[in-house]
Write a structure and sequence with these properties.
CATH topology: Rossmann fold
Mean pLDDT: 84
Number of helices: 8
CATH class: Alpha Beta
Helix content: 25-40%
Number of domains: 1
Bound molecules: adenosine-5'-triphosphate, magnesium ion
Number of strands: 13
Largest sheet: 6 strands, mixed
CATH architecture: 3-Layer(aba) Sandwich
Strand order of the largest sheet: 7-8-9-3-10-11
Radius of gyration: 20 Å
Amino acid sequence: MRGSTAAIGGRTIWSDVSLDVAPGQFIAVLGPNGAGKSTLIKAILGVNSTVAGTVEVLGRPAGQHNARIGYLPQRRAFDASVRIRGIDIVRLGLDGARWGTPLPWLSKLVTPERYRARQQRLREVIELVGAQPYAHRPIGQCSGGEQQRLLIAQALIRRPRLLLLDEPLDSLDVPSQAGISALIRDICRREHVAVVMVAHDVNPILPYLDRLVYVARGQALSGTPAEVITGEKLSALYGIRIEVLRDSTGRLFVVGQPEVPPGHTVADSAVGPTR
Ligand SMILES: Nc1ncnc2c1ncn2[C@@H]1O[C@H](COP(=O)(O)OP(=O)(O)OP(=O)(O)O)[C@@H](O)[C@H]1O
Ligand SMILES: [Mg+2]
């Protein structure tokens, strides 16, 4: 992205954002609700048109190479009554935009070699996310973390060059957030895929990230954790005091990260405990 500005309904969401993501890199997008994190992901997909600057993906303007992008949208949950098996949800990723119940006999109509290759890739991605124990269960009966892993496998099955994950850690406990982040970093390295992941809480994921982007108050700040995670930079971005602590092993922790509701000024928001 070079000097990009996004607007929805005439309102500027963020402006002058420049960002690079390289193959095999794991980047997180952070920031308060309504700051424009999903808008950033959609700008990379070429869904929301940016009003200024450029967004180039895999050497072409955004939107032209989406078949090579794996995308996990925000807010998806399967009701307990959903009977479709995890493995079939993953297989849907192969069939692109053709939604509906997968018909096993239909996928067998492809040539035997192609069928075998598809089955092989299906097994591969299920193993990659460690979903073998529950892939044959109805997805509605899988836990939140198991569903997330199956959905990551679905986004990966077509060997995307770029993986866009909008809050895949939503509703997971802290150890699971770290576990899924470690898994994503692993996939990133092994499949040499670039990953952009929207997240809410920086601390559990920080050790796994190559770079991060903070979106707040219409601006974005990007860089390596050491460049961006400083009390001075985060305080300036959010307009309220934020502290960064370092433990005995050198790990960084952000304290007092605010959640500014849309329409409120930062002065209205309370700073979290800074003990
Ligand atoms: N289709 C739309 N029409 C009007 N406004 C929209 C639309 N989509 C998003 N917005 C507004 O754009 C702003 C940015 O939205 P976006 O979904 O990118 O935020 P976000 O950072 O992903 O928030 P969250 O953490 O809640 O997911 C918000 O103020 C939102 O209300
Ligand atoms: Mg969002």
